[in-house]
Amino acid sequence: MKTIKVREQILKANDRAAAENRAAFARERIAVVNLIGSPGSGKTAILERLAAHRELAFAVLEGDPETSLDAQRIERAGVPVVQIVTQGTCHLDAAMVHRALQELPLEGKPLLFIENVGNLVCPGSFDLGETARVVVFSAPEGEDKPLKYPGVFTTARAVVLNKIDLLPHLPFSLDRAVENLAQIVPRTPVFPLSCATGAGFDGFVEWLLELSARVVSI
Ligand SMILES: Nc1nc2c(ncn2[C@@H]2O[C@H](COP(=O)(O)OP(=O)(O)OP(=O)(O)O)[C@@H](O)[C@H]2O)c(=O)[nH]1
Ligand SMILES: [Mg+2]
Question: Cα(139)–Cα(162) distance, rounded to whole angstroms?
């Protein structure tokens, strides 16, 4: 009897496409951040806030199962953007990114954000050829997310803990959340911040500038 391991084949094909994307990004000296987080954690809101930091020149690929609502928000913030509609698929893959890049002018943009489909599981398995993954989780989701979804957190180069403006209204302990992260990813930098107030963004912007500078100098 023959057994066809479809998942393995899909992931291998994706890895090949991701390697091509990575080589193209390296040629163009573009740092690429794959932004992963639950639906509503604030991925688009973070990009909207970052758009106000003129020291960061970036473009965005938006991934959503339906609609171009997020791309419209990014466009309103004055940032070049292309929307990928996955038609229900719960993650982006490297081929989708490759196709969308044909539509996105990257000249003069040393940084590209890819907002993945809102999900803490599937996007973790699909390399897009990115330089770094940033996982976003937000206070209303609860402190336990790093413990429940360790897979995606272990692949993150940085973690953003969003919506800290809501801490006074939530049974959420920032200390406990940071302890949970330390259990899973003890050496990964964590940036608690708020898109509502702008608090905490300076450290994250500095980290992004360093990432981008490292790629430019390779
Ligand atoms: N209070 C508060 N609300 C926030 C903050 N960040 C985002 N929000 C709100 O949270 C909701 C979801 O934000 P989005 O930026 O759309 O979240 P997302 O992760 O992009 O969501 P999907 O693209 O659907 O996965 C919106 O109503 C935002 O205004 C924050 O720091 N504080
Ligand atoms: Mg979004």
Answer: 6
Give the type of residue at 218: I
Which residues does 101 contact at the CB level (< 8 Å), separation at least 6? 21, 24, 61
Q: What is the pLDDT of residue 146?
A: 97
- What pLDDT is recorded for position 73? 98
Here the tokens at position 86 are: 């996955």
Ligand 1 center–CA 39 separation, angstroms: 8
Ligand 1 closest atom vs CA 37: 19
The mean per-residue pLDDT over the stretch 177-183 comes to 98
What pLDDT, on the 0 to 100 scale, is given for residue 150?
97
Tokens of 20: 């091509």
- Cα-to-centroid distance, 73 and ligand 1 (Å): 12
Q: What is the CA radius of gyration of the chain?
A: 17
Considering all CA atoms of the chain, what is the largest pairwise distance in Å, rounded to the nearest integer? 60
* Domains detected in the chain: 6-217 (3.40.50.300)
